[in-house]
Every structure is written in structure tokens, then in C-alpha cells.
Amino acid sequence: MNHSSPSPNPTGGDASRRGPTQPALDDDLMQRVVDSANMRRAWKRVFSNKGAPGSDGMTLKEFPAFAREHWAAIRQALLDGTYRPQPVRRVSIPKPNGGERMLGIPTVVDRVIQQAIQQILTPIFDPDFSESSFGFRPKRCAHGALRQVQGHIRKGYRVAVDLDLEKFFDKVDHDVLMARVARKVSDKRLLGLIGRYLRAGVLVDEEIQPTELGTPQGGPLSPLLANILLDDLDKELERRGHAFARYADDLLVLVKSERAGERVKTSIARFLTGELKLAVNERKSRVVSVEHCTFLGFTFRKGKLRWSDEAFDDFKHRIRQLTGRSWGVSMAYRLEKLAIYVRGWMNYFGISDYYRPIPEIDAWIRRRIRMCYWKQWRYVRTKVRHLLALGTSKRQAILTALSSKSYWHLSKTLATQTGMTNDWLASQGLISIRTLWMRIHGYA
């Protein structure tokens, strides 16, 4: 199991040979999971996703040597139904709007096995998932969910039922989930293995805690299991004829009146708690005008997509960190990190239809970068020398370099702006929000 491209295996199964919607009512799925080509593909995906070590401390770099020595025994244990996953390592990451999200990081070995399972089960389950389900599915993304909501709004659905599933990934009932997996999977070895992954436990401060509920976020298999469970919700919404979009556990149902919204909210909450044994957060769930709801980091103003105030606040906070004048790094490194973050943010939020703030954001970022250069140049002579080299007049260069006003104030003076021009900043590697937005919307 090295990182080279997998070669065909004439003795192994191939998921593509099975009809996409045909239930896997056979007992060969585990054989297909451990097929060498499938495992190589799983390893390549895990390796490309990077990630931290799990509870055993093994790194991605250490895995190939470990696999060469131990994979034969692990493979046989999987086929025998005796393999025991290791507990996941619990880590917490801050949520953008406050609080923490708990992640469970499986060991590298278990990530590879989970990825291999996911690759076999996805062609079996995914084709029958709802067209209104967009999370963690091939050729689908959050943008599709947002565009679908926009389409419903244009058809007159102006009231949103925003249902919040309370700690969804921590509250999944294992029996309810496994009953739904077993609808299309009859291989007892694979069902048993998935069940053991759900009950593998969590390592917290050197103590293993049992997992009687939930499917830990952080493993490759968890998103597929979430979609398998919530597909019953999608089918119920479709059966009732509701307009909706779902991305993982983020759900928005669109109706035409507040009264209808309250009825839908009550009945769907009853379905979630009664049929799927999931908890609904009543405090966060609400019925509101689409103008006042937030979905996947966006709002819908007059049917147009706009990033939410919370998302923009997070963006500005991160920009301030990357352009903080006290961050002791080179300007080349700073601009590189800034470009990576801005491109990533715009790849997601750049579909916003709202152009008005774009030039202002660019101007703000340029001013912060000028401030960083001004701080880095430090001495009066250095500042004068750089400004003169950039074309600033001698008088303006000297007066500005001698000024005792703040870095922020001096970053918007005639001297700094005629020296560190927009074009010069771009030549140094400063990325333009406006250019990215225009490109995304087909104007450049």
C-alpha cells in the first residue's frame, strides 16, 4: 500500500460493475472493501487530505512502512470479522460564531479503512438520495443548495423554516442508523465493522470514554452515515411536497406563509424526534422571512445572495490577523498566506451577488498592507529611501517619514499612496478581491 497509482486487480471487485441503485444484498462487500485497488485509492485520498495523528500517534508518513509489515494481518481480521478499531482522539475547534465543535480523529489505519468502506458504499446509497440533499456528495456542494433556495424564493416561497438539529453528530442513535444501513447492506462482517466504528470510544485526556450515541465528525465514513440517516427526512419532506434544501445537518424548508411554516416546523420536529430519535434545538429553530434567515453563511436579500454579517466579521478578523503589523514575518510570507486565505474565502463566498462592498474591502486590505510595509521599514532613512525609489517626491517622503503619527494614519497619506501604488502592491503579490469577484461572475 504505497502512494503510487493503483494498478488493476483482476481478483478484486469493482464498485462500478454494480448497478448504481441495486441494493447490495450479497455477502461480498467486505471483500470489495479490502480489494487492493480500492485500498490504494483510499490511501491516496487519506494522504491527500493530510490530517493529524489519531490516538496511536501514527503519522501519515509512518503509515506505508507500517502497512507493509502489518496489512496482511489487518486485512485477514477484516475478512474474519475480528478487526477492532481504535478509539478516536477528541479535539475541539472553535466555531465561527462562538463555542467549540468536537471532532473525533481516527487513527491513520482506521481512516484508510473508513475511506475504503465509503468508496464502496457511496455508489450503493448515493444514487437514491434526494435531489435536495447537497452535503458530502459527489458533484454536489453548498453552492448548489444555495442556488436551489434562490430558485424556491423566486417561485414565491418567502418564509423559511430553519430547523436546528441539536448536536446532530453527537446524538445519532446507533440502532436507528444501522437499521437504515442494513436496508442495502447484508454483509454481516461489514455491518459489524461499521457498528464497531460507532462504538469505538473516544480518547479524552488519556482516558477512553464509551460512545453510546453519535458518529464522530472527523472520519471519512461519518458524512455518508449522516446522509443515510437523514435521507428518511428528505423522503418525508418530498412525500409532503415541501420545497427545501439540506446540506448535512443544515436544513431549510421554504413555505409561503408563517402559519404554514409553524405547522411544518411542528410536524417535522415531531418526525425527527419520533422516527429518527434526533433532538431539535427549539431555541435556535425558527420560522422567519427569508430576508432574515442565514443558511450556509449566506443571507437572501430580495432574492440575491449575500454573505452573512457573521461570515464577514470572521473574514475581517482573519484579515486583521494576517495583516497585523506586529506579526514578525517577511512581507513575501505574509502576502503568500494572505493570498491563500483570500482565494479560499472567495472560492466559497465569492458567489455573493452583492458587489457594493468589494472595492471598499480591497482598499481596506491595501491600506493594512501599506501599514505593514511602513512598520517593517522602521527607520526614517529606510522609509525615505524606499519611498524615493517608488517615485514619491522628496519633500513628501521626508515629511511623512519624520511624522510621529500612527502607522494606520500614515498608511493613507499622499507619500505612501503615491509610492506604494495599487499596481506596485499587486506586483508584490497582493491579491485583489475585486479581480476574483469579477472572474467568478464572468466579467473578466
Structure description:
The chain is of the alpha+beta class and 444 residues long. Helices cover 50% and strands 11% of the residues. It contains 19 helices and 11 strands. The chain has helices at residues 29-33, 36-49, 63-80, 108-125, 142-154, 168-171, 174-181, 188-198, 222-239, 258-275, 309-322, 331-349, 357-377, 380-389, 394-402, 407-410, 414-419, 422-427, 433-440, and strands spanning 88-94, 100-105, 159-164, 202-204, 207-209, 243-247, 250-255, 286-289, 294-295, 298-301, 304-307. The chain has a 4-stranded mixed β-sheet, with no helix packed on it. A 4-stranded antiparallel β-sheet has the order 6-7-3-8, with helices on both faces. Strand 10 (298-301) and strand 11 (304-307) form a beta hairpin. Helix 2 (36-49) packs across helix 4 and helix 12 (331-349) runs parallel beside helix 19. The model is unreliable at 2-22 (pLDDT under 50).
For the biggest sheet, the summary is: 4 strands, mixed
Shape: globular
Q: Indicate the structural class.
A: alpha+beta
Number of helices: 19
| SSE sequence, one letter per element | HHHEEHHEHHHEEHEEHEEEEHHHHHHHHH
| Oligomeric state of the chains present here | single chain
Cα gyration radius (Å): 27 Å
Per DSSP, what share of the residues sits in E-state strands of 2 or more residues?
A: 5-15%
